[in-house]
Design brief:
heterodimer; A: mainly alpha; B: alpha+beta; eight-stranded antiparallel sheet; 13 helices; 8 strands; disordered C terminus
């Protein structure tokens, strides 16, 4: 199996398992799910990018999209607390 | 006695013999090797050249010198191969995009439904589905090419090198020259003299010619070629974000394995052994096994005397890390396994094969 395929499959497995785990322990905040998924994405990417630097560079737009999403959820939470 | 009009050096008799006719040697105003067109065109197509024509699209026989004849060598089987290149191999394909879009849609629907029914924790799974889908769709947008295309784009160049080796190259062993600078391209030198017993430090760093002639030193007369795996090594270094010249003797074998198996994915496994006499590699073929087989069959001189591009990557990396000239004792390609034996230059073993 190719490196990219292994990366996608391992990431998919990781977030499905962690999502189910968070569900089981009763987490109801979507931003926690998002944060966990983002951390898993960055960690797995870092592991793969040590072998293939171009993959890390290619996935930069996805990282930016993910970080914007994370910033949005954090901003929403801050506004919720302030209000 | 013939002398090069450009550099004034004497042309060795062995080279003149190899070219056949002294009058066919024309070095005035041409820094590279020149031979008469008739000599190439008149040569009857050998069995090997007809093999080239029948089994490889871009490679024509020795007698075929026109673009038209080359185009005519593309068989129906080759056309089918080229057509199949449009579909990226493995999971990356049209199905991947469909799967990605489906996962995005499922994720959005799950998130909306979970919000409507008040099951917030379900939206976590919806988000997971959305992210995986996004990744699949994005990765699909990157171009990916099949091994057939790599093979087809490589074989013509190697067939030309094969012709040069067959016409000019003596039966001496190739010497992979050490690189001094980080940006140096790994070069391989084929001495013209039989049994030249090259010195331990063959300094050809200033040379930028295919045919190196030095009347004063017979060790320095030969073909100077860019190593077949030099470009792959550059790509491997870029992907690994390292330069093999910075690595020590203990680290480079692991780096070669990581680079060839994980980064470039040109081999399934690489085993290397570093001894006092030299280095040996055993490389198990990966997705490019058909390419390696084709090279060994269609360009046997290149494969056995310079090493195929896959073997050559490992050799170039070793030369760069060890910082010594290495003589290629042998490169064999059998049953999906490349076996490469290298010896440090300056040893006592006979240099002819």
């Amino acid at each position: 199996m190719r490196l990219v395929e292994r990366y996608v499959l391992s990431y998919a497995l990781a977030i499905v398992v962690s999502g189910l785990l968070l569900m089981v322990i009763g987490i109801r905040e979507i931003e926690i799910y998002y944060a966990v998924y983002l951390i898993e994405f960055l960690v797995s990417l870092e592991l793969v990018a040590s072998f293939r630097r171009s993959l890390g560079l290619n996935l930069r737009p996805i990282i930016i999209v993910f970080l914007f999403g994370f910033a949005y959820t954090v901003a929403q939470r801050i506004l919720q607390i302030l209000s | 006695m013939l002398y090069c009009d450009q550099c004034g050096k004497q042309i060795p008799d062995s080279l003149i013999k190899k070219l056949g006719h002294p009058e066919s040697v024309e070095l005035r105003g041409e820094p590279h090797l020149t031979t008469t067109a008739e000599r190439v065109a008149v040569a009857p197509p050998s069995r090997r050249s007809s093999d080239l024509a029948s089994s490889s699209a871009p490679v024509a026989g020795l007698g075929d010198t026109t673009a038209k004849s080359q185009a005519g060598t593309i068989t129906r089987g080759q056309e089918m191969h080229h057509a199949s290149v449009d579909a990226p191999p493995g999971m990356l394909g049209r199905q991947q995009r469909i799967l990605g879009v489906s996962l995005i849609a499922f994720g959005v629907l799950t998130a909306v439904a979970s919000t409507l029914i008040g099951a917030v924790n379900l939206s976590g799974l919806g988000l997971a589905s959305f992210l995986i889908g996004l990744l699949l769709v994005y990765l699909h947008s990157r171009p990916s090419f099949g091994p057939e295309l790599v093979e087809a784009s490589l074989l013509s160049s190697l067939a030309n090198v094969e012709r040069i080796l067959r016409e000019l190259g003596p039966r001496t062993k190739a010497i992979y020259l050490k690189t001094i600078d980080r940006l140096d391209v790994p070069m391989v030198f084929l001495p013209l003299e039989d049994n030249p017993a090259p010195p331990s430090g063959l300094n050809l760093s200033g040379e930028d010619r295919l045919l190196v002639i030095d009347s004063g030193d017979s060790h320095r007369a030969g073909l100077l070629l860019e190593a077949p795996g030099a470009s792959l090594l550059a790509l491997m270094e870029k992907e690994l974000d390292l330069n093999f010249i910075d690595l020590g003797n203990d680290d480079f074998l692991n780096a070669i394995k990581s680079g060839m198996v994980e980064s470039l994915e040109v081999a399934a496994d690489v085993k290397g052994a570093f001894t006092q006499d030299g280095v040996s590699f055993r490389i198990r073929d990966g997705p490019l096994r058909n390419m390696a087989r084709s090279i060994a069959r269609l360009a046997p001189n290149v494969a056995s005397r310079l090493g195929c591009p896959i073997c050559s990557v490992a050799i170039c990396a070793a030369v760069k890390a060890i910082k010594r000239d290495l003589i290629l004792e042998g490169a064999t390609h059998q049953a999906g396994v490349h076996s490469v034996t290298l010896r440090f230059s300056g040893g006592s073993t006979d240099e002819t094969s």
